[in-house]
Amino acid sequence: MNVTFEDVKNSRDIKAYISKADESLLALGYTEHSFAHVHKVSELAGRILQLLGYDEHQVELAKIAGYLHDIGNIVNRVDHAQSGAVMAFRLLDRMNMNPEDIATVVTAIGNHDESTAFPVNPVAAALIIADKTDVRRSRVRNRSQAQFDIHDRVNYSVTMSKVHITEGEIKLTLTIDTSNSTLMEYFEIFLGRMMLCKKAAETLNVTFSLIINGQKMM
Q1: What is the pLDDT of residues 129-186, one digit of tens each?
Q2: Closest-CA residue to 139 (of 151, 129, 149)
Q3: What share of the chain is helix, strand, coil (3-state, %, to 5)?
Q4: Sequence-separated (6 or more) residues with CB below 8 Å from residue 200
Q5: Burial 161-177 (b: 16+ CB within 10 A, else e)
Q6: How far apart are CA 146 and CA 150, in angstroms?
Q7: Radius of gyration for the alpha carbons in the chain, expressed in angstroms and rounded
């Protein structure tokens, strides 16, 4: 590759856009979408493809897409996937990434938000799963539990979250403290995202399973 994940990760411009995008979401009351999130999504997207036998080139593109996927939030939360895809095109083009690789990354970013998402290729599928399975207590930034909204309650209730990848299955295992949020609240927010993960897994020729508190839900 002529532009690597390390090149993207070390770009001062990209770091600034990720940081400023998250500042906007903080002001709007959203959960954490900064470096902890993008690093986690990037690592998991790459690991999914690697463990499923995809070549290192595809793995690298998945990591790049994961790192850049939320920069569109600097424009607006609405349609941030499409805004982010346009921004990623501009940034990667300026870094002289070859057009085929830019197209793959931009397509994945533009198809990651659940309102318009579709796993159009393996990189997009890996990005969707990595992004939608990032539910954890540390994403909550509201320090007053009395002021938690449903997103805060659901994320705060997750005391353990693990993604297991085998040859034929991707499995999300959660432990949820139901004193903070009910399972119904979890599904109110995440059912659409979990169904999208299932569709993405099908693109990768594997199944997707969801285990909550020891019970198989999907």
Answers
A1: 999 999 999 999 998 988 999 999 999 999 999 999 998 999 999 999 999 999 999 9
A2: 151
A3: 60, 10, 30
A4: 119, 124, 125, 126, 128, 129, 208
A5: bebebeeeebbbbbebe
A6: 11
A7: 17
- Asked if residues 79 and 96 have their Cβ atoms less than 8 Å apart, the reply is no
The predicted-structure confidence for 11-33, as pLDDT tens digits, reads as follows 999 999 999 999 999 999 999 99
**Closest listed residue to residue 126, CA positions, set 218, 46, 207, 192:** 46
State the Cα–Cα distance between residues 203 and 191, nearest whole angstrom. Answer: 19
C-alpha–C-alpha distance, residues 62 and 66, integer Å: 6
Instruction: Please name the amino acid found at residue 20.
Output: K
3-state secondary structure of 95: coil
| Dist CA 120 CA 101 (whole Å) | 15
Length of the chain (residues) = 218
